[in-house]
Amino acid sequence: MPWHMRRVTIFLAVAAIGLTFGLVVGASPSRAAGSYDGSYAGTISWQASDGSSGSLSFTFGITDGRFSADVGVPVFGNVHLDGSVDAGGLVTGGGSYGCTFSIKLTLSGAQVTGAGSFASCTADGGEAHGSIVNVRRTSAPPAATTPSAPKAPHPEVNAQLPCQGVGYYSYSPRGGSACDVKWATPQFLAALNSIIATWYALHPDVPLGIGDMSKQGGTPPPCNKAPCHKAHQKGGDADIRPIRTDKGGEGVSYKSKAYDLELTRDLVGVILNAPAPTGCKLNVIFNDPRIKLNGVRRDPKDKKTGKQLHIHDDHLHVMFVGSQCLTG
Ligand SMILES: [Zn+2]
């Protein structure tokens, strides 16, 4: 076999084994490497000590971050997290030739560069050196995918109570902006507005503290402080503070001296009597056992510990109940 013919054979063998070495040793699979998916082509130029020179084309493909090339034999591997592909090794054979080589490719989105010496071969007393002179994509890079906004789980939660208004103020017990968690279905907001207006007509000097309702579109409300809401996602809930004897804008537990039982009982009455759509009615969860009205519930016992829960000691959870209205 003439030298230059053998040389091409050597290059192909080197490429196959070299890529196998490098990819098996150094690489770890990566999802990010999926951005390099595509087909590539490269060129290696070589010069031999006898003065001859030439070039050799090679191709490879990357699918899902997995590298494969066909350089006479199939080779597989993974692309590094940073997009680099390293290969190196040594091949000898026939007693009269041997090659050492290293390959480094750098892939970055649509940009692909190849670098590094490719091979140094000796055969028949001569030497040949090669280097990668270019690598390019032969297919378009995958389209960048921008994550689409999460779909609103409850698009009907689209009516907002202004953060401040006549007869009420906003508070945020569990973190986040009090104003962000002021959404409801139009039907529930109508009922809540009726409660606020009725209360204001009766007690214009006692503004209601309105806490969490729902987030727009029914995504879960933020929670930096337990207990977090299980409800408040379908636009049919609002938390309202009990009334204080000083009529101030602070929270209060029904067990506190600052708690005004009479006014709070009045408030619960206003809530239960507010107009609701056909098939819906308003209920309240509040733990003061002295308020005995149809439609008022207490916290249940904890299912795991059997202990009485005290979530609704300091706020009235106002909600729609009924098969015709969204709840929870
Ligand atoms: Zn609540």
What does the model show?
With about 325 residues, the chain is an alpha+beta fold. It has two domains: about 5-135, no CATH class; about 160-320, Muramoyl-pentapeptide Carboxypeptidase, domain 2, CATH 3.30.1380.10. Helix content is about 15%, strand content about 30%. The chain contains three helices and 17 strands. Strands 1, 2, 3, 4, 5, 6, 7, 8 and 9 form a nine-stranded antiparallel beta sheet that branches. Strands 14-17-15-16 form a four-stranded mixed beta sheet, covered by helices on one side. A two-stranded antiparallel ribbon has the order 10-12. A hairpin with a 2-residue loop joins β2 and β3. The chain is rod-shaped, with a radius of gyration of 36 Å. The termini are far apart. Zinc ion binds near residues 232, 237 and 239.
Structural topology:
Layout: H1 3-26, E1 38-48, E2 53-63, E3 66-70, E4 74-78, E5 84-93, E6 97-108, E7 111-115, E8 117-123, E9 126-137, E10 159-160, E11 168-170, E12 183-184, H2 186-202, E13 208-210, E14 237-240, H3 261-272, E15 281-285, E16 296-297, E17 316-321
Parallel strand pairs: 11-13, 15-16
Antiparallel strand pairs: 1-2, 1-9, 2-3, 3-4, 5-6, 6-7, 6-8, 8-9, 10-12, 14-17, 15-17
The protein binds zinc ion.
The site of zinc ion has 4 residues, from strand 14.
Low-confidence stretches: 1-33, 71-78
Shape: rod-shaped
Tally of domains: 2
Distance between the termini: 82 Å
Q: What value does the Rg take, in angstroms?
A: 36 Å
- The structure class reads alpha+beta
Largest sheet: 9 strands, antiparallel
